[in-house]
Amino acid sequence: LVAMMSSYDTPALTWVLQASLVIVPIISVGLLNYASEYARNTAWIEYRVAAERIRTEIYLYRTRASQYAVEDDVERQQLLLNKVEEAYKSIDSADFVPYMRARDEQIVRDEVQELCYQSPGTDDRDDGFAPLTVDEYLNYRVRPQIKWYVGRIRKDYIQKRRLTIGVLIFAGTGSALVGLDRNLASLVALSTAAGIALTMWSSVRTTGATYGLFHESARDLQMGLRRWEILSEEKRKDTKVVAEMENIFVRERGDWEKAVKQMQQSVEQAFKDSRSLRSNEKDNGENSEEELAAEGEVAK
């Protein structure tokens, strides 16, 4: 923009743009340093996975399904505590963010009930604590989750299409403007940078990376629900279906973690490559100046 505006009589605007050449890199370095220290890209992924692991165990516990199909309540509670501890330990210490809270039991109960009510993936009638029958589990957990999956799939798919169109528009705008006016040649770099930034922003938001996984899970949950509905009244009480449904969630969680981590790490690597490139360019420039100075001394 500075190069483009220099050909026009706009000293005030040119000065502002020149000042931004100094200010923007400083802000960028500060943001990157903060992000690398306090907002590591995989921390939120590990927390989401750990939370979902606990969520699965809670539903198995409340329905007495899988390993929780025992009469001894103390043994069931011990199993649940062991699973919670495993989820805590699954969080990588390198991406650790403090999560402990000092709250009494009543506050925790109130928060759980409020979150159960607010969450689009659960039914409003679920208080988060009471034992569940198989029918209640399907109504409180599976059906709302299918509905959430379907809504998220459609939203993510539409956003992916719009972002792709946006990148194409940004990429083509610069070339089109140059054809109209040579003085606008600098806009090619600007439009290309905007297209790259939009692509990376899409990667950070994982747009288009997960709707395929959600579609597969929603399909399997729907088919499992249909199979359960055609069973006899007696067989519908079998908690085996709860374990089968939770296995679908476990598989989706594992695939989601791999896909999102890979995308996030590729974005972080792109940032690192950009910073390394700038550093190398700076070093090369300094070396060139030193060489010129040395040549000057020899000439003297």
- Cα shape: elongated
Q: Specify the structural class.
A: mainly alpha
Assembly level = single chain
Discrete helix count: 9
Number of strands: 0
Q: Which whole number gives the mean pLDDT? A: 83
User: Could you give the distance between the termini?
Assistant: 41 Å
Strand content: under 5%
- Which H/E pattern describes the elements? HHHHHHHHH
Radius of gyration: 28 Å
Report the biggest beta sheet as strand number plus sense, adding barrel if it closes. Answer: none
Please bin the fraction of helical residues. over 70%
Spans of 5+ residues with little confidence (pLDDT < 50)? none
3D architecture notes:
By secondary structure, the protein is mainly α. It is built from 9 helices and no strands. The two termini are 41 Å apart. The mean pLDDT is 83.
Q: Could you give a short description of this structure?
A:
76% of the residues lie in helices and 0% in strands.
Task: Please render the helix and strand layout as text.
Layout: H1 2-5, H2 11-38, H3 43-63, H4 73-89, H5 105-118, H6 134-180, H7 187-204, H8 211-229, H9 240-299
Helix pairs in contact: 3-4, 3-9, 6-7, 6-8, 8-9
